[in-house]
Design goal:
3 helices, about 100 residues, 4-stranded antiparallel β-sheet, alpha+beta, Ribosomal Protein S5, domain 2
């Protein structure tokens, strides 16, 4: 028998999701570290959020150093700006097919 039709995407997709990596290297906060930066980073933080700004995952570690609450807050702020950029790119790529309005 034929499969039933799928419901509209807007009923299946509740929100967008994006992920970025941020870190501290030689005292500088960096977004989207490449391999050479990541392997030498003092602090590494992976951030996954919804397009609405809710957290899905925050994973941070002081690979080579400790870090302060202020540094953590700065990394989260930088990561959120990166998430916003990815979310805008997702929206632009889907154009009128964006199911989340």
């Amino acid at each position: 028998p034929p499969l039933p039709p799928l419901p509209p995407v807007s009923t299946l997709v509740r929100g967008s999701v994006a992920a970025v990596s941020v870190g501290l290297l030689d005292g500088r906060a960096l977004l989207d570290l490449d391999y050479s930066e990541d392997k030498d980073a003092d602090v590494d933080l992976n951030l996954v959020m919804t397009g609405a700004g809710d957290f899905i995952e925050v994973q941070a570690g002081g690979e080579e150093a400790t870090f302060s609450r202020k540094q953590l807050d700065n990394l989260l702020d930088l990561g959120k700006r990166g998430i916003d950029t990815v979310t805008r790119a997702q929206r632009a790529a889907l154009g009128s097919n964006w199911p989340l309005d």
